[in-house]
Amino acid sequence: MKKLVFAALILLLTACGNAGEPSAATAAKAPEGKLYIYNWGDYIDPELITRFTDETGIKVTYDEFDTNESMYAKLKPGNSNYDLIIPSDYMLEKMQSEGMLLPIDMDNVPNAEYIDRRVEDKYFGTGVTNYSDYAVPYMWGTLGILYNTTMVDETVDSWDILWDEKYADEIYMYDSQRDSLTPALVKLGYSINTTNLDELNAAKDLLIAQKPLVQAYLGDQVKDKMIGGEAALALVFSGDAVFCAAENPDLAFAVPKEGSNVWLDAMAIPVGSLNKENAEKFINFMCDPEVAAQNSEYIGFTTTNAEALKYIPDELKNTTGYIPPDDVFETCEFYRDLKDFLKEYDRAWTELLAR
Amino acid sequence: MRILKRCYILLMLLFLYAPIFVLMVFSFNSSRSRGRWGGFTTDWYAALWSDREIKQALITTLLIAVISAVVACIAGTAAALGINSFGKVQKRAVLAVNNLPVLNPDIVTGVSLMILFQFFFRIIGGGSMGFVTLLLAHITFNIPYVILSVLPKLRQLDKNMYEAALDLGATAPRAFFKVILPEISGGIISGFILAFTLSIDDFVISFFTTGQGVSNLSIMIYGMARRGINPKINALSTIIFIVVMVLLYLVNKINKEKDAK
Amino acid sequence: MKIKLSYSSANRAAAYPYLLYMLVFTIVPVLLVIYYSLTNDEGAFTTANFSRVFEGVYLSVMWRSVKLAAGSTLMCFLIGYPLAYVIASLDTKSKTWLNRDTILFLIIVPMWMNFLLRTYAWLTILEKNGIINSFLDMLHITKLNLLYNNGAVVLGMVYNFVPFMILPVYTVLNKMDNSLIEAAQDLGAGKLHVFFKVIFPMSIPGVISGVNMVFMPAVTTFVVSDLLGGKQFILVGNLIEQQFLTVYDWHFGSAISVILMIVILFTIGIVGAADKDSDGGQLI
User: Fold this and answer.
1) pTM tops 0.80, yes or no
2) Interface size, chain A vs chain C, as Cβ–Cβ contacts under 8 Å
């Protein structure tokens, strides 16, 4: 008998849950359409999504990924119906070459004229297939070291500090294969796009040697941890560093002089999208200079929108890391799609974590 | 000796409850950082309340739990009836397969179902993982538990009763509902509760079998926890803890009163 | 006779839909995993995925998983058994908080909270600026690194799984025939002697199911190691998750899954054989 009463209680509870659903659905404005977005974690001002829905009536479903690779693994089986993704350059190149992207109808994205193509041109200048019909630039930046000035006295200008035993257990690396391999490859003087197995293995060995010094390999929580003063040094993207420094003034950012990675994330429509026009509306919305400026201010990443820069307060513009100086930009290298050799990177990364 | 016992119990309870109380206390902390107390606030509860994503996840969790438990009860009871009249060898073979999702590590079950769904979509050339696949996955791991709780009851059942009812002219469905069902209802109900609980608590299998825009509470919490310390989770934990505590306490109390009578 | 036969065949038919369901949702998925584990991207047969599993580095992950899970199971036994014993010795009628039902109730409540929330709770405690370290800091003691190491992972496992040890042991101790214990005491055996010669051996079935119920989830978890281990000490569960959700190598991921499946089913077979009386229902 006791179990019956229990079951009744549970049913009562769930009946309330069910009753809540239709009312929630009717309360919302009748949706004009849907839009499924798949973006990096913490990579948009949520208020803008609400505003987009208010303006267009399009209901947005928003999911997040933590690395380009996990986004790819989710889309590759070929049956998710996301309408908009915002991956990085090399991943877009890969997806485009594998036929995973739909061309964007630029007539529907008039605001794209505000986009500064300087970064994109540099990328395509490296000889990769031009995918500009498939993607509209979103944010750009570099990869560098975020450090806590109360714990690090010296000048941070080299990757070597990530191997300094003084900072044992005070280092966070990024839980993303290419980004964590970059410091090792650069330190060894190799290209971050190397397809030489010996070079890759040397970098892997260097990271294995570094592992005892690393407190953890983290994803997005690295920001929260660094703001909370949980470690001295962390490998982060420039925009995340700007965000963290705004929250905790003890934090500073540097791009090592040996060089690093420069990246350009862009909005694209994957094959399988059922709401392509809504996705184009959203891309156009995000390219509106005021919207782009608000977004950039909120997340801390650098907008690719030339017109939007005018709305960005000087204080933010002058924060280290927000706009990479030209000399830094020159020393940095883009990632390239590694084609079949990517398997070796996967393997190196898996082996590092398995240690 | 008595004191030692008391101390040990208290120590273990402290171990079990300390983290929960920490979450509860910090759900009222106005500062985001952990070690410091920044003053009392109920803002996180307000933020939780207006969070559409969390509400949606709660609804998904409960819907999946109720539907999968009901379907598993019906399918599992029917299956148990059939299995019970199987020959010994057949029964053994069927139960061995039935136990596979129970014994298999969750991660293997999750991965294998994900492969199955993707394979199916590839064959039909469309479709995507989401609510339906999540539900199917939950039904799949729930049915075996219902069978395992109904079968023992069926075994205890007096076979002659059912046949007697039929001999007395009852139709087969009537005989089932009047004679068998009351006898095995205890097993079905515990199967239901078990299925419901397992479904609510599942993370691993759900994680692999859901699709865009569909998350249950577990998946959402995992995402939030991987993002770092979030006071909203503390508020959510506090509410869940209190609901669980009150529910279990009521059930316990009702039981005791029933027993007393 | 004829009529009877038709009853039972009608009954049997009730299971047929489920047999079909099982074929599709239990057997086919396992076959697909095996298929993937034995093929490469081109769909050609290969054993390379399995030979890769046996490369040193992956074996060491498996070995670490087994070691940490075994350590957690041992810890659960060491702290869980005494508690089960103490609870079983409590008065049921007592009106104070030290009542058997109350204590059991208090042990069960946390189990009903979401597994992830319970694990997450430890982050706040173990962090460098978390509760323990803030406390140490107040006492001017050097802060400790408590998070992102093996210890944190074991702690998370013990915390989550210790009720699975306490409850089965308690159930067995509770059902124990007191007359045997009294008989031993009447014969002049000391308390310790009675415990080790009578009570403990009789509680072994409870310990076995406890070990099973702690070890199995511990060895395959990827959540505890992910949240409390910070990818520093990944387990076999993380390895599988990574292959499917990041690296996109279903073939290697399937090979690890197949091996994990074999190891677990094999272990259960052994434990099951040692625990002959168990009926299917006892797994729960």
Assistant:
1) yes
2) 65
